[in-house]
């Protein structure tokens, strides 16, 4: 392909913009991330994957208190009958679409932490998510709890990575910052010859620097597309799902969780030394028509997590991966008039992986002893994140939560 044709194609495709973005402090190309891998030694330690459910997931219809009459009385149109839930014990069960997570529960690889929240809850999506990601309920903070850990380690680029277009506050420190690698690959039409298109990504001798960087970015998009589709040399596990498009909301989050986790899996398998990954799923602001919307989202979550954990179980590095799933708040106990639920407070967190000691942790909040119609948190979110810091990242959690002394929970082994 002649240089002029190639240059016009790159400009038209917008890849030059992606290459320019790569000059920013937090942007990192997927190929650059892969080049940090050392297949001989593997990763440098255990890996933490944080899955953010943006919008406020309804915890009562995720981990269902199916035996509690107050649950059925408070939301008669939204409550799941006992015969539909996937029982965890004689009072709690998983949403009926969470079949993959139920298998992990039966294998003792899923921990469910009940009633997680923080003092003086805030029902604003943005303030509440800020609290979860900065670890600072008392006052706004300018750094995230993972970012402060990066500062302490004087961490190199790529120690913490978000596969999202925007870097979350979670990964921002004062002196160190996580890297942002957008999961969006390059989707080619069926008639396109990938070998011909790949030629656009070859850097040619003597070409201008920005054009060369644009070509590299183009090749990077092709590689990401192959990883996401499972057509690279390491394939995705059986049972991977094609994800539906979920209507966007203003509360944040991405819609293709499986694509993000496919990139995480590739990095773990080739020995990239990243210790913390951040991925997300949005759309959980279910003020109306909750049953169908939440089931669609939870089915997507279930398929993505099940496929990812199955793939991770096949390697030593993968078995050292721990996944923590959280949302900014739960929903109110009582349903609203639109077959949905409004912003609430406490909800369950999920922790899964090869090192996890499965089971129920914490106490299920009362559905009758409420705080102005909302659940009273029984577990502080910093205890859950603090346990992950101590066990997965070998860090003293008390250093990262503004005077709070996290109490370890036994869903992970010490250190």
From TrEMBL:
Signal peptide (residue range): 1-29
Alphabetized PROSITE patterns for the sequence: TAT
Lineage top rank: taxon: Bacteria
Keywords carried by this UniProt record: Signal
Pfam family, one: DUF1501
Full protein name: Uncharacterized conserved protein, DUF1501 family
Organism in which the protein naturally occurs: Micromonospora coxensis
């Amino acid at each position: 392909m002649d240089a002029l044709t190639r240059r016009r194609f790159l400009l038209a495709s917008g890849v030059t913009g992606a290459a320019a973005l790569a000059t920013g402090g937090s942007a990192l190309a997927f190929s650059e991330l892969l080049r940090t891998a050392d297949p001989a030694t593997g990763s440098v330690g255990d890996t933490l994957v944080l899955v953010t459910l943006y919008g406020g997931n309804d915890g009562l219809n995720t981990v269902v208190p199916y035996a509690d009459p107050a649950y059925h009385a408070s939301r008669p149109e939204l409550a799941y009958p006992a015969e539909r839930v996937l029982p965890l014990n004689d009072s709690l069960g998983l949403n009926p679409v969470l079949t993959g997570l139920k298998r992990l529960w039966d294998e003792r690889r899923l921990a469910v932490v009940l009633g997680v929240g923080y003092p003086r809850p805030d029902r604003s999506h943005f303030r509440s998510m800020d609290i979860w990601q900065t670890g600072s309920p008392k006052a706004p903070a300018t750094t995230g709890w993972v970012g402060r850990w990066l500062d302490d380690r004087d961490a190199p680029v790529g120690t913490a990575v978000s596969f999202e277009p925007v870097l979350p506050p979670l990964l921002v420190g004062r002196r160190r910052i996580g890297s942002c690698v957008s999961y969006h690959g390059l989707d080619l039409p069926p008639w396109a010859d990938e070998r011909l298109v790949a030629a656009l990504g070859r850097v040619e001798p003597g070409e201008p620097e920005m054009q060369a960087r644009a070509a590299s970015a183009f090749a990077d998009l092709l590689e990401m597309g192959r990883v996401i589709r499972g057509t690279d040399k390491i394939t995705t596990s059986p049972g991977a799902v094609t994800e539906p498009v979920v209507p966007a909301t203003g509360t944040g989050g991405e819609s293709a969780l499986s694509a993000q986790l496919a990139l995480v899996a590739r990095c773990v398998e080739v020995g990239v030394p990243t210790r913390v990954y951040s991925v997300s799923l949005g759309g959980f602001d279910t003020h109306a028509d909750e049953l169908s919307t939440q089931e669609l989202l939870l089915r997507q979550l279930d398929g993505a997590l099940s496929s990812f954990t199955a793939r991770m179980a096949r390697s030593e590095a993968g078995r050292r991966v721990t996944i923590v799933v959280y949302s900014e708040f739960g929903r109110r106990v009582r349903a609203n008039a639109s077959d949905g639920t409004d912003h609430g407070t406490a909800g369950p967190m999920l922790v899964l992986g090869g090192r996890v000691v499965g089971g129920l942790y914490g106490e299920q909040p009362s559905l009758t002893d409420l705080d102005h119609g909302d659940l009273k948190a029984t577990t502080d979110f910093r205890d859950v994140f603090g346990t992950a810091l101590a066990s997965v990242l070998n860090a003293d959690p008390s250093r990262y939560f503004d005077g709070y002394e996290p109490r370890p929970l036994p869903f992970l082994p010490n250190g």
